[in-house]
Amino acid sequence: MTTAIGRPEHRELLRGALIGILAVALSIVSIAALGATLLHLSATYVPKVMLMFAAGAALVLLALPGAHCFARLGAANHVTIVRGALIALLAGLLGERGTPVIAAVAVIVASGALVLDGVDGRLARRSGMTSEFGARFDMETDAVFVAVLALLVWQFGKAGLWVLLSGLMRYLFAAVVAFVPRLQRPIPSTFRAKSIAVLQMIALIVALAPVVSPSVSTWVAAFGLLALLLSFSLDVVWLLQQPAADAP
């Protein structure tokens, strides 16, 4: 019996995806090495970046055969891979010195990742290559992005430990859903949810900026967290209001 990965079309898909991932990996290791030198980061910075990127790449390659319905990865998913690489650069800063210059660089990199977040979805729709895989890939990348930003905001002393809830919210929601059958159904994509997700990212990036004082960044991060709590609460209410017969 031929496995999903063993099928010719899936082998071609994985080959193309792997080539794209390796190209981004080569670029990102060069950028990480240059950044480590210019910013006087620790010797562990580059390994941290590559470990983060490799973990994400492995998950992408494992998920592709069963969830992507096209023969090639597509431009939109390649953009998301680049976004993942930028997030890996940010994740590598965890545990590093919290200087204003490093914070400023983190804001620039994070802003680039945020801009690309508005590109991949449009590319997928214009090319007619929307898929379950692409939607999940984008969502999980967003979740990791928010988690890394929240950790950096806390590490740089721009908000208290509570800010980590911003990054944990997606995973706490998934944990609750696993134990509540009424919540185990698809949630339709809404403009409200997308807008609040972007607002959360912007709030954390602003909070991270070195020109924003901790007294201001605390309020900015708190506003983003409250908006996210409201969004998840509205999703839970909507799910609970659906007829029980619709539950799996």
Notes on the structure:
With 248 residues, the protein is mainly α. It has a single domain, classed as Four Helix Bundle (Hemerythrin (Met), subunit A) (Up-down Bundle). It has eight helices and no strands. Helix 1 runs antiparallel to helix 2 and helix 4 packs antiparallel against helix 7. The radius of gyration is 19 Å and the shape is globular. The protein starts with 7 loop residues before the first helix and ends in a 7-residue tail after the last helix. The N terminus is likely disordered.
Fold blueprint:
Blueprint: H1 8-38, H2 45-67, H3 75-91, H4 100-127, H5 132-155, H6 164-179, H7 191-208, H8 214-241
CATH class: Mainly Alpha
Order of helices and strands: HHHHHHHH
Structural class: mainly alpha
Number of domains: 1
What would you call the shape?
Answer: globular
How many β strands by DSSP?
0
Radius of gyration, in angstroms, nearest whole number:
19 Å
Q: Given the structure, what is the number of helices?
A: 8
What is the CA-CA span between the terminal residues? 30 Å
Mean pLDDT: 87
* CATH third-tier fold name: Four Helix Bundle (Hemerythrin (Met), subunit A)
Oligomer status: single chain
Judging by the overall fold, what is the CATH architecture?
Up-down Bundle
Strand content: under 5%
What percent of residues adopt helix (DSSP H or I)? over 70%
Unreliable runs? 1-6
- Please summarize the sheet with the most strands: none
